[in-house]
Amino acid sequence: MTEHPGSETAVRGRAHRSASVSGIRVLDRAMQILALLAEAEAGLGVTEIARRVGLGKSTTHRLLSALARAEVVRPDPRTRLYQLGFRLLQWTAGWLDRMDVRTRALPHLRQLREKCQETVSLNLHDGLSRVAVERLEASQEVRFVAELGQPLPLHVGAGGKAILAFLPRPEADRALKAARLALREERLVRRALAEVRRTGSAVSFGERIAGSGAVSGPVFNHEGRVIGSVSILSVAARLSPDTVRSHAELVRQTAAAVSRELGWAG
């Protein structure tokens, strides 16, 4: 059935496409403004920004106001000149921190893999989650594979528990509240976290993937704050009690070495 150009559905479709194109244009113009401010040696006023990006003054002012609300630009209250905002610096610093942790951890992860002959990974704390940012796979035919970049809850798996156990109490409570665990399950998790704090390492079996096992140790930054974990990932069949104890010592040593690279006094 052919849709009439003037039908309500056709009109809505055109309006949606028009709004999408308009949104892309706004984003493109906002990026032009940010690029201009990034290259400017000093702050720029609305009139000068409008002239350089080829926009009307009122449109430029609306864009700058929106960017200022997002804290990616900031006006000087005295001169009314605009500069890049501190939010961009925060984002950049966070990204650089992650890259720096990965770079510093890599040699230690290689050594860990050689010693344990299993897959090893580096996880970083990210809000209510942890994310695997590096993985070195074992040569074993049957091995555990960590998915890079996928946010995972902190209370599930050794890699998350090694972080959650050492977070400040209010943050740990928020993470557990967000998980919406049953009362009995939350008590079991808290008991497990107490054991992680006591031993300095976390162990899990099949919490995310049946037949898997993991042993992890916490990574701390120069402020003594937990920022991630180092994990040995295996299949449960290869994790005898003696092997778990050996792996636990290895992840503690490796996590401590990475932490010292980041300025942790230990």
Observed structural traits:
single chain, two-stranded antiparallel ribbon, Beta-Lactamase, 8 strands, alpha+beta, 6-stranded antiparallel beta sheet, about 270 residues, Arc Repressor Mutant, subunit A
What is the residue-averaged pLDDT?
Answer: 86
Radius of gyration: 25 Å
Q: Largest sheet, described in full?
A: 6 strands, antiparallel
| SS element count, helices | 8
The helix-and-strand class reads alpha+beta
**Helical content (DSSP H or I, runs of 4+):** 40-55%
Quick one: overall form? Answer: elongated
**N→C terminal distance:** 72 Å
Strand neighbour order, sheet with most strands: 5-4-3-8-7-6
- The CATH C-level class name of the largest domain: Alpha Beta
- Tell me the CATH superfamily of the largest domain: GAF domain
**What is the domain total for the residues?**
2
**Order of helical and strand elements:** HHHEEHEEEHHHEEEH
Unreliable stretches (pLDDT < 50, length at least 5) are none
β content, as a range? 15-25%
CATH architecture descriptor text of the largest domain: 2-Layer Sandwich
Q: Count the E strands.
A: 8
- For this structure, the CATH topology of the largest domain is Beta-Lactamase
